[in-house]
Amino acid sequence: MPIVKMLRQVASWMLRSPACGCQPPSLPRRFLGTSPRQLPADASFHSTSFAEADQPRVLITGGLGQLGVGLASLLRKQFGKDNVILSDIRKPPEHVFLSGPFIYSDILDYKNLREIVVNNRVTWLFHYSALLSAVGEANVSLARAVNITGLHNVLDVAAEHGLRLFVPSTIGAFGPTSPRNPTPDLCIQRPRTIYGVSKVHAELMGEYYYYRYGLDFRCLRYPGIISADSQPGGGTTDYAVQIFHDAVKNGRFECNLNPDTRLPMMYIDDCLRATLEVMEAPAEALSMRTYNVNAMSFTPAELAQEVLKHVPEFQITYNVDSVRQAIADSWPMNLDDSSARKDWGWKHDFDLPELVTMMLNFHGAQSRVAQAN
Q1: pLDDT per position as a tens digit, 308-347
Q2: Cα gap 308→265, rounded to integer Å
Q3: What does the H/E/C string look like for 118-175?
Q4: What is the pLDDT of residues 42-52, one digit of tens each?
Q5: Which of 12, 146, 287, 352 is most buried, judging by how many CB atoms fall within 10 Å of its CB?
């Protein structure tokens, strides 16, 4: 193996050195890194590499997913366009590419990730690369690589360079044995999807790195996120996005969950604001590393009733997907986010009526533009 070969070379080189009172030979530079992969147990990273008064230099991984582009837009307004770097392994659409810095970043390539952080003097990292629930179940090996191995690379780079790290978690981190209504921050977590398992792993690894290495790790358990300007990404709660596309386009929607399946949800603007607020919160205000955040909770039938108020001809039918239904039935019906509201002042802006109005206004406007064209 390459490591064994290298160690043999080092040992041979040291044995050839003169046995005298000279300075002992130094190890090759590769052995002198400050990654948790290489450090002794008593190492500490509590000092950060940038002054608190400075604007953060931000890297977003998995930036072309549902949340990355919107988060980049919010952070660029706050910290300046050039201080926020969006990254992904896919080619960005033109409007994203022109909106601010974009680079290729593969989280499975540790060297590439490390170079990006060093070359761009990154101080905050938002790690959004992940395969979601239903997609992950269809490709467990890839989900394991991206969601777990990729996370390990991110944790090591963040700890080595004193970054403030945000990793999103999810309602999928809970399982059928968790209390469901409401689900508290701290309770039993036994998820039954690779997505959920990987997110519990992320929560625990982040907390471990916080206590072991002083990594400034922060995490929110998102409910289902509903956004107007992105396509569904393979999640179990994505019906609550697709329903608006179909209501405006066709006037009907086929739902893959039972009509009484209650799940916690949040409009994307609330989600992005919660993410920024927890990252800006003073360290001393945080009583835990992972918080629940919530805004509303509804069923497909309740959402359809609200859509009907705006689109009287709208019709909904149900063709239940057994895999997605089983996932939904193991998730919380409502999240208890009282700790987030108490510790750092979290407060949502959008309830179900405001959410439906925003989504239909957006898609209605888009549809009218398409028809005019």
Answers
A1: 999 999 999 999 999 899 989 999 999 999 999 999 999 9
A2: 19
A3: HHCCCCEEEECCCCCHHHHHHCHHHHHHHHHHHHHHHHHHHHHCCCEEECCEEHHHCC
A4: 444 444 444 44
A5: 146
Residue 295 near residue 231, CB atoms below 8 Å: no
How far is residue 61's CA from residue 93's CA, in Å, rounded to a whole number? 16
Cα separation, 127 vs 123, in Å, equals: 13
- Does the annotation mark 213 as catalytic? no
Q: Which entry of 110, 195, 213, 291 is annotated as an active-site residue?
A: 195
| Nearest one of 73, 80, 78, 116 to 96, comparing CA atoms | 73
Whole-prediction pTM value?
Answer: 0.83
pLDDT in tens, 213-254: 999 999 999 999 998 877 766 678 889 999 999 999 999 999
Q: Is residue 242 within 8 Å of residue 200, measured between CB atoms?
A: no
Distance CA 272, CA 336 (A): 19
Phi, psi of 334 (to 5 degrees): -155, 135
Query: CA 206, 165, 223, 108 torsion: positive or negative?
Result: negative
Return d(Cα 232, Cα 235) in angstroms, integer: 7
Which residues, in sequence order, are CB contacts of 150 under 8 Å at separation 6+?
Answer: 107, 108, 129
- Alpha-carbon distances of 165 from 20, 58, 89, 187, 251, rounded to whole Å: 47, 10, 20, 24, 42
